[in-house]
Design goal:
Blueprint (H helix, E strand, L loop, with lengths): L1 H17 L9 E6 L14 H10 L4 E3 L5 E3 L2 E6 L5 E6 L13 H12 L9 H9 L1 E8 L2 E6 L6 H5 L7 H5 L3 H6 L7 E7 L3 E6 L12 E6 L3 H9 L5 E2 L7 H5 L4 E16 L11 H4 L3 H8 L4 H8 L27 H10 L11 E8 L5 H13 L2 E8 L1 H10 L6 E6 L6 H5 L17 H10 L5 H17 L3 E14 L2 E2 L14 E2 L1
Parallel strand pairs: 1-10, 1-11, 13-14, 13-15
Antiparallel strand pairs: 2-3, 4-5, 5-7, 6-7, 8-9, 9-10, 11-16, 12-15, 12-16, 17-18
Amino acid sequence: MRTRFIALIATLSLILGAALAQAPADDTLVIAQAADATSLDPASINSIAADNIAKHLWASLLEITPEGEIVPYLAERYEVSDDGTELTFHLYEGLQCHDGEPLTAEDVVYTFQRAADPANAFTGNTPGFIFNSLGYVDARVDGPLTATIITNQYSAIAAGLIAEVRIHCREGYEAMSLDQASLTPIGSGPYRFVEWVRDERLVLERAPEFTLREAGFDRIVWRVIPEASTRAAELIAGNVDIADAVSPDQIDVVDNSGRATVRPVSGTSRVHVGFNMGAAFDDVPGGAQAIRDTAVRVALQYAVDVPTICQTLLATDCDRATGMVNPPNAHPTLEPYPFDPERAERLLDEAGYPRGADGVRFELALQVPSGRAYTDAALAIGQYLSDIGVQTDVELQDFGSVFVPALVGKTAGPLFVVATGGSIWSAQYDMADLRAPDGATNYPSWNNETWFAGWDRLAQTRDAAEQDAIVNEMLEAFYNDPPWLMLYFQPLYYGVSERLDWEPRRDARIVVTNARLR
């Protein structure tokens, strides 16, 4: 009660200042996010905050609906070759990018080849997660409006992966340097770029030439407001229409304001602790070596009380994850690791890591980005691990400038807390972060023979029952040889103005092309 009272007073004081700001016009939608984009180059985007913007700036060949259905977007149809290694897309006629350049098959091929070009050294979602998971080989033009994407083997999730590649026109991007492209994007979607004031705001305006999707507002303003209390205050004051990541202790304040409500969503992002077993820690003694032992990683699963973290820090009940895959696609019989610190201590003793005279078994650094919905959870995890003799130093880091580069460079850790995007449409999509031992998104540098052989087996069959059986074998391998300390699927709390008719998605993407005034 005292915590909620303090939150109420703090929020009310912020509202008094926020009330002086200008409320949005009827043709303008204002969205508050906790973090800014680090780049607006479509091949460099590697955060949900930036991808939320990207989904409005650029269109893709296909689109994934909130219900998990893959539907046409720039492409009116596509076919898959008999061996599953070529996907041929047929574009609608009359498409164009925001600079007026016609959008053709050449631009589709350019988009893929530009992202894959090692000379560009892109580290975003497209050349990293997407191309690695897709087994991307190349792309070719088969006609003015026909482009083919070539992969190294059949994948049941190829179409869904391609749906995340943002298509852009060749002439506009060839005329820009990489630095210019990261700051002044030329889009192909429902909104065009207007301005970007770093760490403050990014403005988009409706692209009238784009007719594949309706746009409910003429202008979208993405505001960067790192503090949750300030986002809530701006929402209540009427200066913001959508506030991302409302803090649980401010839900009642927002709901009782009469100006906005909080929409809770069971999110698909997988919050977990990664065990970095990669080359960056080859010569680091102590805990960095201990976590390379499967028995140690299993023992640590029992040390953390995940349901209590959810109840006390997230104001909700949540089931602990058994792996990477969101329900209902998760393994049907695996049970979450229970909170059992005595068992954790016994397993660590048996693994050869007893407590020393000072009570410490070994030491670890646990790195987490500050200001995230799971930052407080990381602090609690550090204490749980310390309680069983694993002395854990929790290091808070800036998300964009420190944490993400370390994560992408596989130097984060040896423990790191992160939330990675998931889906409701495919178990294999959720698993694809770990597509190859040297894959760009295999941040733990995990190498399990059963798991990685499973991907080759999946490529050999299109029978759904056989695929499900292989997936379950892989998920059992993940559970028994865990590269993650498994936590929970991130609950999402969106603050939404009473003037707005809009429903949030489970996949943490803020898509507002369908938003309207009430």
